[in-house]
Every structure is written in C-alpha cells, then in structure tokens.
Amino acid sequence: MSIAASGHRNHWMSDLDDIDRKLLALLQENGRTSYAELGKAVGLAVSSVNDRVRKLQDRGVIEGVYAALSAEALRLDLLAIIFVGWTDPATEAPFLARVADEPSILECHHVTGAWNYLLKVRTHTTRDLEAFLAAIVKGVPGVQRTETLIVLSSAKETFHLPLELPAWRNPRA
Length: 173
Known about the structure:
This protein is of the alpha+beta class. It folds into 2 domains: 18-66, Winged helix-like DNA-binding domain superfamily/Winged helix DNA-binding domain (Arc Repressor Mutant, subunit A, Orthogonal Bundle), CATH 1.10.10.10; 78-150, Alpha-Beta Plaits. It is 31% helix and 16% strand. Helix 2 (35-42) packs across helix 3 (46-58). Residues 1-12 have low confidence and may be disordered.
C-alpha cells in the first residue's frame, strides 16, 4: 500500500490488505479463476481464499461476477454518449424510472454542468439510436434537450477499478 506524504497510511482502501488487493486484481482479470489458482498466486490455502472472497462479497467490495461480452460479436456496433437536460425537477423521477430497466443503456450518470444526466448507450444502427431517443429519452415528459455523441472508436474501455493509490496522487511525485 502506498504511504501518504505525512508518513501515515493513506485511508484510500486502507481496509484492504495486500492479499485482498491481489485477489481483487486477479478476479478483475478473470472472474473464473479457481480458488486453487488464486491461493497459489497469493500463498494461501483454498479455504483461506474462500473465506477472504466471501468476506469481500459480504462487505460489498465484490458486487458480482460477470462475463465480458463482445459488442462487436453481438453486432451492437453503435456506441453513443447522450446528455439529457431539463429544468423541472419533477422530470427526474419519471426519467429514472424509464431508463432503469432499458438494456440498451449501459450507464446512467447524474452529472454537473449544463446537463442533468449522461447516458452510455449501445445499439445496432443509427436508425435504432434514433428510435431509442424518441421512445426512451424524449418520450419522458419534461425532457427538454439532448446532445448525442457517437463514438467512432475507443482507445480504452474497461471495467477494472484501480486497487492501488495512483502515482499522480503522491504529492512528492
């Protein structure tokens, strides 16, 4: 774990020890890694790995294990970022209800600035995106404006979360 400039441990993930972080890194890389392989990698017995993973799940650090699907193989070739805005606060509840179970929406974020929400959406074609905007986003009473960015290519896209204090956080760097 990184040490803060004051010489004290940084509180960033301070409740995770080196073995927990190593297990999490390995599971992020491949959620199907066996407990025997995990144990070998961190120097623990399978039963100890099982206990640690269960505790990480109980604490909510591990929310679930998922298969990473290929958008290209599924022909979900269009990735769009959609900003959504309104002025009436009463619009938020029906908007969130509408987007909650929509499978085309990969992410929905409440944001600062000129917009209320940002959506990350995958569809097959621009025609599908147009229908999605009309039915899902603009179909919510009170939605006043949207701005849609179509992603041409992605240099990086990951679900892996950082498990160490980044170097840029070190004040001495």
